[in-house]
TrEMBL record:
SUPFAM superfamilies: Alpha-L RNA-binding motif. Gene3D superfamilies: RNA-binding S4 domain. Associates with stalled 50S ribosomal subunits. Binds to RqcH, 23S rRNA and the P-site tRNA. Does not require RqcH for association with 50S subunits. One of its GO terms (molecular function) is ribosomal large subunit binding. The keyword Nucleotide-binding does not apply. This is RQC P-site tRNA stabilizing factor. Coiled coil: none annotated. One of its GO terms (biological process) is rescue of stalled ribosome. It comes from Lactobacillus helveticus CIRM-BIA 951. Keywords: Protein biosynthesis, RNA-binding, rRNA-binding, tRNA-binding.
Amino acid sequence: MRIDKFLKVSRLVKRRTVAKEMADQGRIKVNGRVVKSSYDVKIDDIIELGYGARVIKAKVLNIRETTKKAEASELYELVD
């Protein structure tokens, strides 16, 4: 699954277009590398999202095409 879609499905980012723009601006890293929006997410990847001065790190636990809002947090775990 593309990273922009994964971020939307997991609800780390509200809209897929926003996730795509973040990737185009170089604000998304996977395993320490800056990636494009077409990057294929794999289980155990560490995703870093740059929101201005704040950085969120999340480890991918599961990949699903769709998910309910209550189950979205099961797709990842936040890492320090």
